[in-house]
Design a protein that fits this description.
By secondary structure, the protein is an alpha+beta fold. It contains 17 helices and ten strands. The structure holds fe (ii) ion.
Length: 413
């Protein structure tokens, strides 16, 4: 079994140096863009990112006049146009379908779909807002996974009703662990913890008032902390970094993991990390009360829609306050994750001194994950660009915490 993601070694000869001014404003980038720092190429913009003024401003602030593109990009630079799936996005019927499917399907990790194993649930691919069945299977008619069955792009999903079968399938894979190397087995264990956290979070969002679920979240959070304390590198396998679309349950797990990493990084004791992580993983539980059509909407929200979304903070607080399994101290992470030190946040527009540590940490983790997550209509920002944006929003976030966060992320790669 092989779970490792491929790393690409890039050498000098594959790159072309181009003047920043050759890149056209307000167009999607037709190639990935790199900079060279201390002899190392760093990807700063993803293919498809829209070239905004911010793009140029960030480069200017860093005194960068030249960037690098892969050699194959030169033709694209000349023609410089990239088709987007805008037509699909603008179709109300396509959107309605998409929103319906998204709520009834659950996104799974492609690393679990191992060639040579059998599944007894159907698997779908989500691409450009469309769901395509790629494996047709059931208990009565299981189907074998082959090397070429699983497409490399788009998200893979199963129907929510098949979740118990998917869990059984993961358990079956776990039993084969003795057949793989120790390193791969460590990686697999982290992936299983992440997947259990995701499944549980999707259940919490369906039934936010179930005390049983919150208790289980406590167990998963403990597992995440133990794993990260014993092996800081495991954060890479605990995060979902390659999604095609945004799912609240996946985002919640990422924010929980990132906050845990930051808590550990700044030397919090275990009990405090636990309380921070509980608040961080459940920070968006209030979204369970917001209509799906608003949450899944592509593009700009109206003022009314935005005001409805903002209510998720107080709704989440109200739900968790009633759970005796949820630590009272953790509530602050939920309540303050959209507050900004500058006072520009919500729901209370609190200023710096009023925003507590758990709120500050969860805010950074939340922003970072939101920016680096892909959406059907736009590729994700690179970690480099996302961090540049967060750092740039002067006065919004805690500078010392940001430094620690960047240091912690440095360990991820
Ligand atoms: Fe939120």
């Amino acid at each position: 079994m092989k779970y490792k993601s491929k790393r690409i070694e890039i050498s000098d000869k594959d790159f072309l140096k181009i003047d920043v001014n050759r890149i056209i404003l307000n167009r999607p980038l037709p190639f990935d863009v790199y900079i060279k720092e201390a002899g190392v190429y760093k990807k700063i913009f993803n293919k498809g990112n829209i070239v905004s003024n911010l793009f140029f401003e960030i480069l200017k602030e860093k005194n960068i006049d030249y960037v690098y593109i892969e050699e194959s990009g030169i033709e694209k630079l000349k023609s410089s146009a990239l088709k987007t799936s805008e037509t699909v996005l603008e179709s109300p019927v396509a959107f309605k379908n998409y929103s319906f499917f998204k709520e009834n399907f659950y996104q799974i990790d492609r690393k679990f779909l191992i060639s040579g194993t059998e599944v007894d649930f159907s698997i779908y691919q989500l691409k450009n807002l469309r769901f395509i069945k790629i494996i047709d299977a059931s208990i009565k008619k299981p189907s074998m996974i082959y090397d070429d069955t699983i497409p490399e792009d788009g998200d893979l999903l199963i129907e929510k009703k098949d979740l118990p079968l998917y869990k059984e399938y993961i358990e079956f894979l776990s039993k084969r662990l003795d057949k793989i190397s120790e390193e791969e087995s460590e990686e697999f264990k982290s992936l299983v913890i992440k997947e259990s956290a995701k499944i549980l979070m999707s259940q919490v969002l369906n039934e936010p008032r179930s005390g049983e679920n919150i208790k289980k979240i406590g167990d998963v959070v403990s597992n995440i902390i133990e794993t990260m304390l014993s092996k800081p590198d495991s954060i890479y396998n605990l995060l979902n970094l390659k999604n095609y679309d945004y799912y609240t349950y996946t985002h919640s797990v990422n924010v929980g993991v990132l906050a845990t990493g930051l808590g550990i990084q700044i030397g919090m004791d275990r009990d405090k990390v636990y309380k921070l992580a509980m608040g961080a993983i459940l920070h968006d539980i209030g979204k369970s009360q917001i209509p799906h059509e608003i949450l899944n909407k592509q593009g700009k929200l109206s003022d009314t829609e935005y005001n409805i979304i903002k209510q998720h903070v107080l709704l989440g607080h109200e739900i968790l306050e009633k759970h005796k399994e949820f630590p009272e101290e953790s509530l602050i992470a939920v309540l303050q994750h959209h507050e900004r030190l500058s006072g520009r946040g919500y729901p209370f527009g609190l200023k710096a001194e009023k925003i507590k540590l758990f709120g500050r940490i969860t805010a950074i983790a939340d922003c970072y994950d939101a920016l680096t997550t892909r959406r059907p209509y736009k590729p994700p920002l690179t970690p480099y660009f996302a961090l540049s944006i967060i750092v740039r929003e002067k006065g919004d976030h805690d500078t010392e915490l940001l430094k620690a966060f960047i240091k912690m992320l440095g360990k991820v790669k």
